[in-house]
Every structure is written in structure tokens, then in C-alpha cells.
Amino acid sequence: AGAQAATGGLVGFQPVPVSTADTVVVPKGYKVQVLAPWGTPISGTMPTFGPSRSGADQAHQIGMHHDGMHFFPIDGSSTDGLLVMNHEYVEPRFLHAARYAGQELKSDEVMVTDGKRPDDDVLKEMNAHGVSVVRVKRGADGTWSVVADPHNRRITGLTPMEVTGPVRGTAHVVTKYSPDGTRTRGTLNNCANGYTPWNTYLAAEENWAGYFRNGDQQDQKPNLPREQARYGVKAGGMSRYGWELAAGGAEEYRRFDASQTGNSAAEDYRNEPNCFGWVVEIDPFDPGKAPVKRTHLGRFAHEGVVFAPAVAGKPVVAYSGDDARFEYIYKFVSARPYDPATASGALLDEGTLYVARFNEDGSGDWLALAPGQNGLTPQNGFTGLADILVNTRLAADRAGATKMDRPEWGAVDPRTGAVYFTLTNNSRRTEEQVHPANPRAKNNYGHIVRWTEAKGDHAATSFQWDIFVLGGDEQAGRGPNGQKLTADNILACPDGLWFDAEARLWIQTDIGESAQNKGDMAVMGNNQMLCADPATGEMRRFLTGPIGQEITGITGTPDGRTIFVNVQHPGATTSPKDWAAGKLASHWPEGGSALPRSATLVISREDGGVVGS
Ligand code: FEO
Ligand code: CA
Ligand code: CA
Ligand code: CA
């Protein structure tokens, strides 16, 4: 209470210094617990964690590389609920540690022998991706645990899913698996998340393109289909993990060679990548229900999705960033109004997708990506709405949207309705490409942009924007009031972003593995989380993480007294030589000689107060 009185704002804790230690540090008066690390058993025969677990075991355990997450209270409880989280990708060295030990391997490298990969390795990798739904409860001693429950469920790279919205049933998504184009299998590279006003979870598909290769077009990139080329599907070579090389040749693995002539005519996999790049809706309270890919939110490298507060009688509005250099920020506005009694995911199947243009004078416009609008005509190569959505990036190019510095998470201020988006970095922006909304060339530190919709209406087609924070050290950085940053709040590469119920803005950082604790980034220490009060401009460092990780994913209980935060890829900075020598950069969280494991932090105040206050 004293600290809050001192600032007059929402941020009341004592800031923590930057850290290079292999541990999590939180402010004085706070406690932190590790929950649900990779490999925690949640279903089936509850297989315990171990270095030699099978691919089938992994389907009953928490996945790798925790990312976006949401706490769904059970009956409004702040001590009992379903924690739903994304697992963005895998680190094969750790996943297959028993057999990969002693080999000089990079953090994302897989072992290929005679052009083949073991089937069970591929299965394990696919099952370590996706989403976990797990019941968590706080015990009498204040400690949280994962409990066995019928809701507990893994959604993976193999889970059957529905395709809905304008792309459903079109030729774009006709596959061997779904000849009528209504279904697909799996979700991949689920980075940030979202949650709907009707209490369902959304998993975004970010860097899915790398999971495919197209063997038809060896070294002939100009000939790749545009719906592959514009997203970075590789011509030739091996996909990110080489799943198409699975020794047994099962169809669910072969499909990652997104080619025609590389397979028989009956196995034309060119449309498989069209089944990825969407927002996936999951009802955590209905474990029997197939996840749904909602195509009207567009196809790109969806970082996450965030809703404006839903108002009865008004459309629902959802914002989403496309995290790649020089890509765009989008919003979806539903055609039908929100009715709390009947609202469901069907609201996301009809409406308008817009892309943002930031004008140099501080105004902005939402450009509709719809047939006949903004140049999206058959003459210009867009045959209809489904074609526009499958080729969202090309449609946004045509419409004249503003190319941003890697849009990551968004958050909407519950008090003011202002929308905030992180722009994590863009080392390739040149002096000639500098624009007031992306104001720095070689933008290694990143920034946060903010806008207010015209007349406070989230469905409006214009807005006013400004820069909220410029990342950087004490010289280059700027805080919410334009003030210089200090040792208490320097930051780089903002990524995760979340408003709590009292309108504290939580900011998480993702300095890439190759840059962490080196050069200009050395002063930043390990990746961290800060807390800001947009009303006062106060911003303080709340948490620092262990070595090699990024802090990503945040949610809380309804009473604000517990927050959950994810630690992703600790130890990823281990060099190939050090891995071969058995020297790991991190042993977090177990310590000793343990393999590092992504995990969830449960953070609360020792006095039981509201976190951050
Ligand atoms: Fe998966 Fe854009 O961070
Ligand atoms: Ca991210
Ligand atoms: Ca990352
Ligand atoms: Ca990132």
C-alpha cells in the first residue's frame, strides 16, 4: 500500500535489476512456483517425464516451448480452472536427448540418416507441438498443481480439425485427407493466443510455412504457387524438421512435402499449406469437440489475436499481427452483432477483414480486404473472398497497408479502449524506409505502437495512433511519457503484451538467442517482463528469467492475486560444441545437471494482494 501511495498509480512493486543468472527473479514480497514443465503427464496412463519417452507418450504430456496461454476459471474460481497453453515449437536436442547426446547439433537441428528420419521421432515432435488443456488447482498451502481431469487434453500436429468460414469447401483446401475441403489435421507453431467473449480459446498459427517444402520446384522459387511463395514455403531442400522424411512413409508425414509431381497424382499435397496460417478455436470445456480453423480472420503468420471488449448489439472485433519483417496488422469485424446469450464462434465466420494503414500525420485507416474493394478484383488476380483470404498478405500488399517492424502481441486497455501492439524489431529497415510509425532504421530494440479508434468505436474504419514506448538502453529508449529509460526499465524486443483487469500493461521481451547478452544487448540481461501504468507513464521491471529463454504468455485469475507466465526455450543458447560436450547453458528449472524445460511460473504476493499493485 505504501508503494502504491508513493507512485499514485497502478504499479506498486520495487523493480528488479537486469539479470544473467539461471533463475527467475521477482520483486521483494512476491513468490514464484514452477508448474507444468514440458513432459508433465496430464492424461492417458499419465506417462512420467523421461529422456526416452515415446511419441505416443508425448501425446499425454505437456508439450514443449510454452507460449500464449489463458486461465479459464471453473465456476468463477480463482483457485481452480483450466489452464490452456500453446507449444510453439520443439528443440530436438532436448526432445531426443537420450540419442542426440554427444552430437554437434544446433538448437533446431534434427538428425537425418540416409535421407530418412525415425517415425517415432517425427511423431514425438508433432505431439510436442500444439496446445495443452489442463486442470490446475491451488491447494490449502497455496501451491498450485496439475490434477487429473476429463477436460485434460492434448491438441497436436495430428489432431483432426474443422475448417470454417469463406475458405471451407473451396478448392484451396481440398486434400487427400479431406476431398471436400472441410477438414484438416493439426495445428503448428502456435505462438500467442487469444480468448473469445464466449469463453473459448484461440491458438494462432505463426511460422507454419517452414514446416513444409515443395519438392516440385527444386531451385525454381519463381515457379512456386503464390500462396506458398508469399509465405516462405521452401522450394526444394528439407522442411524445418524434415517430417516428410519419416522412414515409414505414412501419409500424415508425407504431406509436409507440399508438392504434386514428387508424389503420385492421387497424392497432390500442394494444398496442405493452405490448411495452415489460420486462427484455431478450441472449446476447453468440450474435450470431444474438434478444434475449428476460422478462415475469415485471414491467413498469415498469426502471432496472436486479441478482442476488443464485446458490447451487446455491436459487432465483435478482433485484432491480429503478422509477425514477419515488413508485414501488417489486421482486424476482423463481425457481420452480426454480439448477443451474450447466443454468441459463438460462428460470429467469426461472417464479417470483414481489414488491414491497417498508418498515415504519416498520426491518422490511420482500416482497408477492407473484400472482393471489389481496394483493388481486390479478378483483373488484379483476386477471384473472390476465399482467394483473398488464402492470399491475405498479397491482398494487403495490393490494398496499400503499412509495412511494420514485426507485429507481435496486441492488448486493449479496459479503461480507455486504446489498442497497443508490440513491434518486436526489424534489423532490415533502411533509412529510406523509416516511417513515423516505424521510426528507426535497423530497429534492433523494437517499439510499441498505440491507437484509438474513431469515436471510440472498435468497428470504425479510421484511427489515431502514436508511439507508446521505444525499446532501448538508457540512451536509445523512451518511456510512455517520452522520458528516458533507466536501469529500472530498459528493455529490448517487446513481444508478449497483456492488460490485467485493473489496466496494468504487462510487457514481455524476446531478444533472440543469437543476440542475448551480447553487444548492444548485453545491458538488457536475460529476457524479462515489465509492468506499466499507461495513465501515469510509470514502467518497472517485474521479472527476469533464466538463461537462453524468452518470457512469453501471461494470464491471471479473476481476483488478480495469481498470474501465470511462461518461460520458453531455456538453454537454447547452448552452442553445438557445448551440447556435444554435455555443457548446457541452462538447467532451469530443476538445476543440477537436468535438461532445461519450458514451464509455467505461478506468481503471487506473499501477503495475498493483487499482483503488480
Ligand atoms: Fe513466436 Fe512472433 O513470436
Ligand atoms: Ca511471440
Ligand atoms: Ca521466439
Ligand atoms: Ca518473438
Automatic annotation (TrEMBL):
Pfam families: PhoX (PF05787). The keyword Transmembrane applies. The keyword Transmembrane helix applies. Signal peptide: none annotated. SUPFAM superfamilies: NHL repeat. This is Alkaline phosphatase. Keywords: Membrane, Transmembrane, Transmembrane helix.
